[in-house]
Amino acid sequence: MTALTLAARRIGFLVLASIAAATVRAEPVLHDFDHHTPAALGASHAEKPYVLALWSVHCEPCRSELELLAEFTAGHPEIAIELVATDFLEDRPAAKAMLAEFELDGVRIWAFADDFAERIRYAIDPRWRGELPRLYLFDANHQPIAISGRVEANTLAEWRRGLHRPRTSAPASAE
Amino acid sequence: MLIALLLLAGSPALAQHGGQAGRPSLGASVAFDRAGVLWAVDAADNRVRIRRSGDQGQTWSAAMPVNAEPEPIAADGDSRPKIAVGREGELYLTWTKPLARPFTGEIRFSRSLDAGQSWSAPITVHADRQEITHRFDALTVTDDGTLFIAWIDKRDQERAKAAGQPYRGAAVYFAVSDDRGASFRGDYRMAEHSCECCRIATQADGNGVIALWRHVFEPNIRDHAIARMNPDGSVSPMRRATFDQWAIDACPHHGPSLVKDAGGRLHAVWFALGPENAGVFYGRLEDGRVDGQRQVGGDHAEHADLAVLGESVVVVWREFDGRAMHLKAMRSDDGGESWREHALAATEDIADHPKVLVHDGRFLAYWNTREIPHRVVPLP
After folding, report:
1. B312: how many CB neighbours lie within 10 A of its CB?
2. Closest chain A C-alpha to B316 CA, distance in angstroms
3. How many Å apart are CA A84 and CA A112, to the nearest integer?
4. What's the confidence (pLDDT) of residue A26?
5. Number of neighbours of residue B105 by Cβ within 10 angstroms
């Protein structure tokens, strides 16, 4: 094999690789989520409310959760959503394919990056037993509401409305 | 050629089933044969593998592949290859082969009639060949040598969906073999409205098999149901077995275990996050109630299994403390009334769900961990 054909092959590979890169650019980017990530998320959203949503390609009710979050973020783009697939590396292509079905612009997308899932789960919440979907609604003080299982749209809407109430206001009876 | 390779590399099916990267599949099962040989089955590189131990798990033979043709094999969490031993020492295996669409699969079967020297080409045990859920296989051999294989099946859900009707959960189906696994008859339906993603616990019972599974009682109560599969394909009426009132639309991925003592009492362990009872539980399943229900381990206990010998009952489970995964056990020598707890082992790396076995008058815990594969720990 001559140097010329080798070079030609290399160029051919680069061209093909860039074509491949262009076609995957539309796909969601999965950030690595490990047992240090929950604390980092809290710090990055200091004094701001945010949503931490956990799902998996192996969880059927999670599909409706993704749909709900897509609707919610469209109506409330000011609320940060951290969406975490609890799936491992081998399921990332399947996770991307499922995410591509939903309009999740502005949602940060993660996937478990460490195969010791129990350690990540514990770092998120020692009380969480791994059931999915699992949703955490953090207010500005980062006091979470934890919800297991499918969530109703009005639960999210009510939580969002509640965030507008001044924290030092009179008791609820005043409303 | 290059294009084809690049496209393949991006194909979900290949990446999902290739298993080159990511977590090793630790899902394994074990059984003693009549000669006291301990057999362990697991999966790697698209092959079911079997290994044997003549010294109760202290040392193991090399792993021997079962399926000559590679195929995807579920071997994680509540999905794992299963092994059962027949009356004449036949070795029977089942596993779930995931298909391309999410949540779909086929229940596969292979047997060895020569003590593991050779294995039959795998067959699919159900007649239904839709690309839908047939997953979470449960394999049981009765005392008279009949094989029962149960699984979670979504044909009824798919039919309802096609008709625009809502459907609660999935269903449990089973197949029966009277000829040592040469053929299966069935696609018998045990129950509609099971939960979608938990293992099924089974226990041989005369010429039939009792099954315990997570059900979806109306509207969304994910407590357990119990029924008996009969060899003619009929089913004894299903009844509710646990009463924790866990209302949830979620995948717990956390199935039960079941064992029958010499007096016919059914002992079970299960997981529930009910309004009053949250955790792993032990109890004896009576008609319409649970006797002696008690929590197993602490708030992080999970994936328990149990075995019985005479008046002795042993429950094993794993428990994560933020740093290490612990293998724990509790033992009762009075039929489940009073208990002592034991710490058996720990690892700071990933670990499978534990199993407990009875052999030669002793209880043995089996735990497949990345640190020490196929570990066997005798109970004190």
Report:
1. 18
2. 18
3. 7
4. 60
5. 24
Are residues B57 and B130 both part of a single domain?
yes
Answer yes or no: is the ipTM higher than 0.85.
no
Cβ neighbours of A96 in B, within 8 Å: 12
Determine the length of chain A.
Answer: 175
Q: Are residues B309 and B343 in the same domain?
A: yes
Identify the residue whose tokens are 């059927």: A60
Give bridge partners of residue B111 from the DSSP assignment.
B92
What pairs with residue B78 in β-bridges? Answer: none
**Which residues form the domain of B337?**
261-380
Record: contact B11-A93, CB cut-off 8 A:
yes
Same-domain status, B144 and B181: yes
Q: Considering only the beta carbons, identify the residue of B3, B250, B350 that sits closest to A132.
A: B250
Structural domain total, chain A = 1
DSSP conformation class of B23: -
Query: Is there a single domain that holds both residue B54 and residue B200?
Result: yes
Residue B265 sits in the same domain as residue B293: yes
- Supply the pTM of this predicted model: 0.88
Q: Which of B278, B298, B160 is nearest to B222 (CA)?
A: B278
In chain A, the residue whose alpha carbon lies closest to the alpha carbon of B11 is A93
Interface A-B, measured as beta-carbon pairs within 8 A, has a size of 105
Mean pLDDT, chain B, as a whole number? 93
